[in-house]
Protein 1
Amino acid sequence: MPSGRPAEVATPQPGDPALARLSLNQKTTDRWSVAEAVDGCVRAGLPAIGLWREPVQAIGAGAAARLVADAGLRVSSLCRGGFLTAVDPAARRRALDDNRRAIEETAEVGAACLVMVVGGLPEGSRDLAGARERAADGIADLVPHAAQHGVRLALEPMHPIFCADRGVLSTLGQSLDLAERFPAEHVGVVVDTYHVWWDPDVLGQIQRARGRIASFQVCDWITPLPPDALLSRGMMGDGHIDFRLLRRAVEQAGYTGDIEVEIFNADVWAADPDAVVATMARRHLAHVLGD
Amino acid sequence: MPSGRPAEVATPQPGDPALARLSLNQKTTDRWSVAEAVDGCVRAGLPAIGLWREPVQAIGAGAAARLVADAGLRVSSLCRGGFLTAVDPAARRRALDDNRRAIEETAEVGAACLVMVVGGLPEGSRDLAGARERAADGIADLVPHAAQHGVRLALEPMHPIFCADRGVLSTLGQSLDLAERFPAEHVGVVVDTYHVWWDPDVLGQIQRARGRIASFQVCDWITPLPPDALLSRGMMGDGHIDFRLLRRAVEQAGYTGDIEVEIFNADVWAADPDAVVATMARRHLAHVLGD
């Protein structure tokens, strides 16, 4: 059941207040390198970018930091740490080491937070409660390193479609239960519309998240779901989510940070990245901003 | 990430206590008519069947009732009513009329409950709260008819993957919030492992559901998710769900009714239905029963 036609507006140009908090998550223009994505943000007048570790590592965190600084961009997030649910001690140690490096990269690029996708069930395991405990233990292990580097971990509740294989944090409430064990400056949460829109308690939990919202990400839930569930995210306006409702809620909860557009979608990735950024800016104005 | 190999045991034969509460939901053997499914249950020694309206209507509810009665089977549920979220008054009236017929069919076949899938967002709508309200209003409209016919409506929380296009009741807690507005003998809930297994609060909500559990359905969450999400249900043991945990929880909450196997899956539908029923009985013994 496709939703109604997306509203269309003229593309906001550089300097337009509609762009003041709009951030391009690098995954939305997956084929662009850090340098290309930074240039793309500058061309389009976007003030912020969300980086991914792999393209950052391809040039080194120091070089990435210089690129964004020279362009005058904020780094709204670095994606991603996590995957902390392994049972095997050696695998767990590797995961923690890798997360410590991610924390250092987050500090080096000056990102507002490190997005944490905590991981799914280990191969062959059906012990969901155990996986959730290990994820919580892993966060506890990492907080001191994050604090030492001035980095904020951002726990991302994942849509339950990913509970088995990607993220056992399934709701914002559950993520806050975990985040609240730690100081808010070291552990916050991500509110990603795609992951939380269905939750009957989402508005109450966003309100509860005051002071903990480290990142607000937007993309749409589209139907029919594409064959690869991982690529089922849609451009705002192409699906079923009421973005204004959720944006107003995070703002009422005190969030004033960037609004990051993160879309995993084969059609979006096949399109010209500059056109994707322009569409994103129009849809942001038409579907996310305003009353 | 596929889970571990399913445990295998010998197929329980008719009279085996392992089959005492096992019910075949007709959708699991989708190509069988009511008569064929009833015969299949008898051959395999199953004491109960879950019927669907379309095959029942193909022969008439009276004829279906006689078939199951002559075979000595219980009818653990009739699937399904619901789809109550339309905004258009005429569409809403049609939905309510159809649900009243479904209630009458439930009484006629003597099913333990009528499974209610409340419906998704209407075409083009992003008003999730509104859809949830209309679903609740529709249930309220139907309760008197259900009471008059001695039928129990069973509200089915649907996995959030179906929130947009199928069912805006997304959690057991939300379903109980609605069910508790009405007498327990008229409105209960379905606990379907596939829909609820991911919920961090599922055990607490199952405990809360004491006296309200109208149906317990089992099938597995498999990964990778098949291309058609609607057909992504797996045979018990093929996926990630801890069935014993959830079965013990519903039993501790006082549920002593049938355990219905409902699987939408292209591979299962392509297999010989008698073999599917035998596999189902083995997997029930190996993965659902026991401590």
Protein 2
Amino acid sequence: MTNLESAHKVNFAKPRCFHTALKSGLKETFFPDDPFQHFKGEPLSRRTKKALQYFVPIFEWLPKYSLSLFKYDLLAGITIASLAIPQGISYAKLANIPPIIGLYSSFVPPLVYAIFGSSKHLAVGTVAACSLLIASTIEEVVHQAENPTLYLNLVFTATLFSGLLQTALGLLRLGILVDFLSHSTITGFMGGTATLICLQQLKGIFGLKHFTTHTDVVSVLRAIFSNRHEWRWESAVVGIIFLVFLQFTKFVKQKRPKLFWVSAVAPMVTVVVGGLFAYFAHAEKHGIQIVGELKRGINPPSLQDLNFDQKYISAPIKAGIITAMVALAEGIAIGRSFAIMKNEQIDGNKEMIAFGLMNIVGSFTSCYLTTGPFSKTAVNFNAGCKTAMANVVMAICMLLTLLFLAPLFRYTPLVALSAIIMSAMLGLIEYEKAYHLFKTDKFDFCICMVAFFGVAFISMDMGLMMSVGLALIRALLYVARPATCKLGNIPDSALYRDIEQYPGATGTAGMLILQLGSPIYFANGGYIRERILRWVRDEQAITDSKGNDVECVLLELGGVTSIDITGVESLLEVTRNLEAKGIKVVLINPRIEVMEKLILTKFIDRIGKESVFLSVEDAIEACRFSLKSSVQITGNGNA
Amino acid sequence: MTNLESAHKVNFAKPRCFHTALKSGLKETFFPDDPFQHFKGEPLSRRTKKALQYFVPIFEWLPKYSLSLFKYDLLAGITIASLAIPQGISYAKLANIPPIIGLYSSFVPPLVYAIFGSSKHLAVGTVAACSLLIASTIEEVVHQAENPTLYLNLVFTATLFSGLLQTALGLLRLGILVDFLSHSTITGFMGGTATLICLQQLKGIFGLKHFTTHTDVVSVLRAIFSNRHEWRWESAVVGIIFLVFLQFTKFVKQKRPKLFWVSAVAPMVTVVVGGLFAYFAHAEKHGIQIVGELKRGINPPSLQDLNFDQKYISAPIKAGIITAMVALAEGIAIGRSFAIMKNEQIDGNKEMIAFGLMNIVGSFTSCYLTTGPFSKTAVNFNAGCKTAMANVVMAICMLLTLLFLAPLFRYTPLVALSAIIMSAMLGLIEYEKAYHLFKTDKFDFCICMVAFFGVAFISMDMGLMMSVGLALIRALLYVARPATCKLGNIPDSALYRDIEQYPGATGTAGMLILQLGSPIYFANGGYIRERILRWVRDEQAITDSKGNDVECVLLELGGVTSIDITGVESLLEVTRNLEAKGIKVVLINPRIEVMEKLILTKFIDRIGKESVFLSVEDAIEACRFSLKSSVQITGNGNA
């Protein structure tokens, strides 16, 4: 039982005190990116300045701003403004609110984001999925047609809740929650929403006057086909022409990325051409509906419009929570992916605060939910924006539009807006991505499909929640059934690897080397115990026929990142069970946190310090030595 | 960039087909203990026999049963029967149902368990926590005082639901669900319940007639003190005498484990002495309440009493689900811990089926929820039981009691029952265990305390669910924030270990070796990306001052048990980001499932097969070689 002299020393140092462990745990949980790294060791004045720059990024980039940068931002800002006007009006229609609100929403929030946002490429604006989500949730308590003012007030209230939640999550550094919306969930959710919205736009294309307020494929299709008598061929022809035009410009962009601006200004062209056509052809008389009056003037305050009436409050809260999460997931993911292209860093929690403030201020100034939509941000990026100044330029363009041009948009035909929305949505149905998921990970594909079909056939929030639930179950299954494997020696080396993966690896007589992975704790303690015992049984079944027996079980713990009380108890049960069979249990390379817990729970005292090794070789050598010198003396004591 | 000849070959074998991977995944999830191992390669007749023996364990042990074994089981059976009578009556009182139901519940279920159960030591009976849980849940819809028949019928219905759920979980091999009730949760839940029940028993001790139906500490204490005018000193004196006697016998058992039978028969002695006292002293006239009439005869059928009325159904369903889980957790944990002492194996899923059948049959024969209570099982074990025959003996004793002796128990004073319950409950408040949790794992301690205070001050189901919820959050945190560490070379060896744990370990110039642990997937992909980039930044900050820069990042993946699409994308983002900085990324020892996913998603093609190594040494050697031969040529391509 003596340890060999040649073996490397295992660190049995005293466990760190609770305070140290807690501090490091909290830091890893809430500050994984160590945001305050730059402040360390600086004098107070510099630290204050840096902190201010950290929390309000405009202080960092504005002093260094130059005219040469502005040239780029000016161009980018005008380009995204030309996209913001048609999109603003269209998505506002989707949310069942007056189109002017869509324009308001591209004025104030971009200014707020320019101050607090840390992404250089993100363009602020409204998004289709959240617009529809708000509409479907608020419709549950108030019908827009019956009480449009109350409905609008609840939309503002929902935006406020969204903003408050986003700010709170950012301040509490709970960016971790957004991580639980996986790529697969988002792909499926976006695809489902896009399908739904496309079908809904058939209303506009066919010029229907009556429609359903439900947002599932079956209701929408039924509404379209049951109102066949309302179909107007004039509307449909115009709609299809616009749609073909928009899709063609996208095709051009795809073939020649340099001509990205063609597709960027296409919606604006559609709106202008559509408006001129409607004005001169008196389209309204031929069954083509138009947007109608748009008041001149900037955002009126809406603080007094916020409605906290207990009777309705549940709907804005629900809409606020769901849209906050979806908007964050979209905005942060997009900001991050463009930052990575330029090799910059985005702090998710800071972005949350920026989004939150933007929505809080928005809800006070007649705006509804905004985030960083993919389409607009991509256009911004391609147009060569350099800083958040592009958002300021866009806001100024919107200001001018609101002050002078807004009434001109009254002749915009609804069918043109429907074509714009449909064209944008068609790009969000990423069937190649779904196919890629199917090829590489069937479970991810399931998660994606649950979101897609859930959104399309049940409801948007249910679909999202079902998909997140499935992803969580998967996460829990991962931890409940961690992989274990049997190690063998790779010939001509000192390496021990999984014998399933490396079939050439050979076992060691009388010993069974098992590698455990992932944390061991209550959810998988029982499984790991059973699995180890099964490995031993299987090994005994093989060795029985050969005559030599398993006398040592070596547990490689290098991959075990942590262990809790239940986990330690499971190991203890394994040890007891195996010792009763005369099998010695040996631990190899426990990591620092595991070792601390094993020392605290006296597990190390129980098996003896001489049964813990730093490497598989050391352990094998020691076991061989003890097998030779004292076969089966140890281990029967506690049977 | 060429790989060195001396390096060991990495297995880039073609990924296993989906079917194989799915089959192995399902097997590990649902059949971790490989229950059908004995059937392989046997002829059909033997296989049928073995399968029958597997599903109905009595066929396995009964043919081998002998008189010498029966002697032990007879003694153990009589001992537990003497415990079952007072406990049955007491716990039935706790559930607000007629005491005779408690006796019925110790007759049929033990027989069913003897047929289907796989534990040799488990003694079947009712338990305090579940009795109170049923009462508190059913009271939500029907007050026992107002409609005792309906109340009783709903209790039977709850038992049926419990049994159905348990059987279904067992058949679906969802024993995994029980794993999510951690030891800490159970310790806290049991402690809280025991505290509550102890306080409730003050009702019996003080001889109160009016009491609350709420089950939280505040309501119970208020009920006791607001009814002070009902306190009867006669009752209190008798109660305290009994309690002292019972606690003394426990003390004797603790000091002399051989005298365990003293505490085992003590409750029976209490009941008999109490009954005789009540009979001869006409105790009822002195304010000491008695149990009252107990009908002679065995269990009447109760199939026709089951109530599925929509108006009430929610309560029995809720009670059924919660008690099923709690009963399973207690029964399986106890069966397993005694099996481990005797070095035997228990199949959790088979036990679930046995418990389920026992409760289904029980609900048809006027029994309420039964499981394997700790106290009774411990007595059974200590009394030397050898097989499930001890349960049969107990059932026969109960049969005789029901047929002949039941009416004699009508004089049992309620105060004696209260003393029995209190004494049993005091043993369940494991403050040493809570202290042990506090010393070893603060988070486990929190989980335990949430269960304890939740049960004591809110309600039993809320307390349980809050604690399980907290444990789940912890499980998700474990996977959302997996530990990463920087590896260094342990002097005079080829070992690379955590430099925090082994401060003597030295780094390698120009290289940063990181060890990742646990699965990489959507919940932690973002964190791992940020953490790796932070390690690189930190390393650069150190090396900057020394003059040499990080040129290679080596990721040790031996501890990563699986990876999903989001995880691969995170690695890809890391690679892109680091390559843009001119840093090369190298993978070391990916496990089989990770390697499959990396090949499928073309990540390996992206970084090149020559950037994957089997061991840290190989990787370091290759990196050193490529650094020397071509410094910083690679890696800038994608910037």
